[in-house]
Amino acid sequence: MKQFSIYNQANILVRIKQFLVLTLLLTNSFFVCAQNSTQNKNLNISMQETIFLHSNTTTFLTGETLYYKLFCLNPINNTPSHISKIAYIELVDHDKSSLQKNKVYLEKGIGAGEYFIPTTLKTGNYKVIAYTKWMLNNPKSQTNEIDIFIINPFQTQEPNENITFDLAAKSTISTAQSPESSSPSNEKRVDFEFDKDSYYTREKANLKIKSVTGAIEKGTYSISIRKTDQIPTLKQLSPQEFAKKTANNYTDYNTTYFTYTPELRSELITGTIVSKSNLPVNDKSLSLSLPGKEFVLKIVKTNAQGKFAFLLDKFPNFSNAIVQVLDDKSADYSIVFDAFPKFDTSSLQFTSKLNLTPDLKKDIEERSTASQIQNAYYQIKKDSLVTEAVISPFFNTIEKAYVLDDYTRFPTLKENIVEVIIELYYRKENGKYQLRVRNDHKDLEMYGKPLVLVDGLLIQDPSDLFDYNMGNVDKVSLINEPYVYGPNLYGGMISFETKNSDFATNYAKKYLKTMEIQRPNPEKVYNNPDYTAGNNLQRIPDYRYQLLWKPNVKLDQKEDNIPFYTSDLKGNFEVVLEGFTESGQPVYVSKTITVK
User: Does residue 136 contact residue 162 with C-beta atoms inside 8 Å?
Assistant: First the structure.
């Protein structure tokens, strides 16, 4: 009883905190709207955010990978924004159609990801754009964009006036000082150096990043080391240029309505329930399950208009969801989810143009060959996912668990209730079985029915479990106390865990809405081969144009060493370090190294 009381206190405190945060957000939104409608108040610039986006290059062949890094910043001082935790990335073609949409987690305003360029894309001009839901509320928001060229060497270039390029506009690769040293106001804060000026193929190189101001320039930076060739590229906006542009363009703005709720804590999944027979849609409970061994269960209530919002945690990053209205007449409701946030691409301008001239044939063939070789050995050189945190069930510390293999096995739920699980009992009501949890000191029925789960899927009709083969069940967990979860109070909790965590794949009900949710891209550790003695890569070709891509370099001391190996390719490689310090100061350094 004491354990349950401590849990309840902690649970109540957490829910009070969540309720206060949500109330504050909604109250502030209402207050701003009311003020704007009556006194014409502005949404202050300090409550806005902007995104600086950059990629490893701006010209790609199909089969290559576009790596990107984004900084979600406060437009006043370029410090990390604490508003949004999710950013949206889109690839847009010349017809202003969105071809690919991704989500990215923002950790203290910082996010990164990649996009594999498929062979289905045509040669032409494209854009990569980045934004948050909160930014879409401001029609004047400066959504960052990158102009890129994509070349498909397997398709014949079609005559198109929009696919030309003035070679005089080609960006150049320079070993000169970075833009931040061009004026006294842009003092160089971070620099880097190598242990050598040139390297041989498959040789280890050491890159030393260092603060040059005397203080530790803490911040988050990205490092890209990529081979240069004669294929035209466009110069990207530097952090200094971005900071200047943002300072000149962001202003306060009037608003009377917020279309999008900011994703303050994590990913929001929103929608509306609709009654098929004019039943009330307000104050209805919904559950969202991401079933599995490590499962997710969320329960929320609708507002007066039938709208709902689920807040999904970062882990586990499952995408297969099952949603249901928790009601005796569940089948009378349909669930409609809000579409992916819509960015208005009509204002995008495609001014850069590409022309594939015959003198580029050799470079294109070499890069295409290198890309195909790299992709052929992908399984050996593939990137790895950052290990996800192990998520225990929310009831892990207070349940009583029955591992059924520790007892005599019985095939039916009835037999297990009678012979093994003494806290459970069942009864039949209106021709259907109901499960109840027994407590010798309390009448749990006064608190309602128990919360029943199988692999994290909420079961509204426990009768379905009485025909289920209990040989598939590994463990049954119970709480025989009044239990609060989400907005609801339950007369205890019962959780069944199957051996293969596959119950949901064969469980079908008309009121269950099964869908795939697009989740944010998982964080990756990008492959960096190690050619030290004794490795098993001697006979594996290495045709990397991108020698290194590290999007999350944090300079927590005055110097930091980053080792990497060169590939089998010879030539010049551009090395770019860019980002922002913790205080919002832009950093950009560019140099070249030679591999011979």
Answer: no
Residues forming a β-bridge with 130: 89, 144
With respect to residue 320, please indicate whether it lies within any of the assigned structural domains. no
In a domain, 134, yes or no: yes
Largest CA distance in the chain: 87
Residue 164 lies in a domain: yes
Number of H helices, E strands in the chain: 6, 36
The pLDDT profile of the chain, 596 residues, written as one tens digit per residue, is 333 443 344 444 444 444 444 444 443 443 333 333 333 445 677 788 999 999 999 999 999 999 999 999 998 889 999 999 999 999 999 999 999 999 999 999 999 999 999 999 999 999 999 999 999 887 766 668 999 999 999 886 555 444 544 433 343 333 333 444 333 344 688 999 999 989 999 999 999 999 888 788 888 999 999 999 999 898 899 999 998 888 777 777 776 677 888 999 999 999 999 999 999 999 999 999 999 988 999 999 999 999 999 999 988 889 999 999 999 999 999 999 998 888 888 888 887 777 788 899 999 999 999 999 999 998 888 887 777 666 777 777 788 999 999 999 999 999 999 999 999 999 998 889 999 999 999 999 999 999 999 999 999 999 999 999 999 999 999 999 999 999 999 999 999 999 999 999 999 999 999 999 999 988 888 888 999 877 788 889 999 999 999 999 988 888 889 999 999 999 999 999 999 999 999 999 999 999 99
Burial degree of 241 (CB within 10 A; 0-12, 13-18, 19+): middle
Closest by Cα among 514, 524, 526 to 564: 526
Query: 72: helix, coil or strand?
Result: strand
Q: Is residue 283 part of a domain?
A: no
| Strand order across the beta sheet in which 333-337 lies | 307-312, 267-275, 333-337
Distance, in Å, from the CA atom of 461 to the CA atom of 434, rounded to the nearest integer, reads: 8
Give the domain CATH number at 378.
2.60.40.1930
Range of the domain at 160: 46-253+342-388+524-595
Q: Are residue 73 and residue 35 in the same domain, yes or no?
A: no
Task: List, in sequence order, every beta strand (DSSP E) within 173-236.
Answer: 190-194, 198-199, 204-211, 219-227
Whether 34 and 122 share a structural domain: no
Give this prediction's pTM: 0.85
Residues 165 and 60 in one domain: yes
Same domain, 477 and 463: yes
356/118 Cα distance (integer angstroms)? 19
559 lies in the same domain as 499: no
Residue 82 near residue 46, CB atoms below 8 Å: no
Quick one: which of 449, 496, 446, 490 has its CA closest to 469? 496
Whether residues 101 and 164 share a domain: the answer is yes
Type of residue at 298: K
Q: Give yes or no: residues 351 and 421 share one domain.
A: no
- Name, in order, each residue with C-beta under 8 angstroms of 579's C-beta and a sequence gap of 6 or more: 69, 71, 219, 220, 221, 222, 239, 553, 586, 587
Residue from 296, 291, 322 nearest 513 by CA: 322
Give the count of domains, the chain.
3
Cα–Cα distance, 222 to 580 (Å, whole number): 10
Say whether both 363 and 452 belong to one domain. no
Sign of the torsion formed by the C-alpha atoms of 481, 485, 489 and 495? negative
